[in-house]
Amino acid sequence: MPILKDFFIGLSQNQLLNSAAKKYGLKLGAQNVVAGTNIEETIKSIKELNAHGISCTVDNLGEFVYKEEEATEAKEQILAVIEAIHENKADAHISLKPTQLGLDIDYNFCLNNLKEIVDKANQYNMFINIDMEDYGHLQPSFDILDELSKEYNNVGTVIQAYFYRAEKDIEKYKDYRLRIVKGAYKEPEEYAYQDKKDIDANYIKLIEWHLLNGKFTSIATHDHHVINHVKQFVKKHNIPNDKFEFQMLYGFRKELQLQLASEGYNFCTYVPFGKDWYGYFMRRLAERPQNLNLVAKQMFTKKTNTMIGVAAGAFLLGRMCGKNRHK
Ligand SMILES: Cc1cc2nc3c(=O)[nH]c(=O)nc-3n(C[C@H](O)[C@H](O)[C@H](O)COP(=O)(O)OP(=O)(O)OC[C@H]3O[C@@H](n4cnc5c(N)ncnc54)[C@H](O)[C@@H]3O)c2cc1C
């Protein structure tokens, strides 16, 4: 499995395939995990989830932003989503990635973009979550959070349990609304636990700590072992429902999402949308290669004829040949 994981993480970072994918609509099964390519479709998906008592955090997909025009375009799109959420009285807030707003171009440029977004959201009493990316962007993202916190309190972030430093970070940011995750990127041993057991153990430890000491905890996982553990833990420690929520990604474990909401837990679905779906989709395949059946189904039911299709096809063929060799 680690080889597959590395393979898809490698694909997620391929800029050529990323820009090829942008030219096409949602392909290869991405439509199952991406809510739409525009705001209208996305609001419709949010409203459907809201009708089941599920709130949403909305992410305008985008990676490899190295030009100011692209970062500005992303900012405008996020401002438009905020407006649309407000106008449609949808139960939703925003998740965003600093690199999409120019962190790789210039720190202050990125900070100003975020300020504009947080300010607009603040007018509507809307929360903004700063998603966490790879280790190289971790400290600058926390620095941006610190800067924004001087003026605003409608902002929070993510703690990635695979990092050794996560324990210190969660203590420092205990008065923030925090999303706690295992971590999605490939990180070196120098900074991060590599073993799933270690990551899972640290994940539970951080969740428990923040539930007991922190402001509001978003437990973002598809792992039913963790979810069941949290259910028991909050019961044992009398932690009220309004102190935490469960989060999952759009399209994943839909029945469990509905079940948790119907059991009375706060539930929030992470709703990604936009044309730039490729890197996000590849990271989801990296986490759970079983999702490959999404790709396979699409390849065999529709003629995709895209570079991405060819790449995934070559990969599947490679796997099949590999299997045959072993037989
Ligand atoms: C809402 C949300 C926001 C996120 N934000 C970030 C972020 O900002 N930065 C970041 O680095 N990462 C983020 N992530 C990704 C996260 O770090 C993990 O990579 C990702 O969630 C996979 O780990 P997991 O906890 O879901 O469970 P895993 O460790 O992938 O799975 C554990 C077990 O759960 C079960 N399981 C998992 N998925 C399924 C499924 N689809 N169907 C059936 N059983 C399943 C299986 O038994 C599996 O063995 C986010 C994840 C979510 C859900």
UniProtKB/TrEMBL annotation:
Keywords: FAD, Flavoprotein, Nucleotide-binding, Oxidoreductase, Proline metabolism. The keyword Iron does not apply. Pfam families: Pro_dh. Pathway: Amino-acid degradation; L-proline degradation into L-glutamate; L-glutamate from L-proline: step 1/2. Residues 43-293 form the Proline dehydrogenase domain. Its EC number is 1.5.5.2. Its cofactor is FAD. Gene3D superfamilies: 3.20.20.220. It catalyses: L-proline + a quinone = (S)-1-pyrroline-5-carboxylate + a quinol + H(+). The keyword Manganese does not apply. This is proline dehydrogenase.
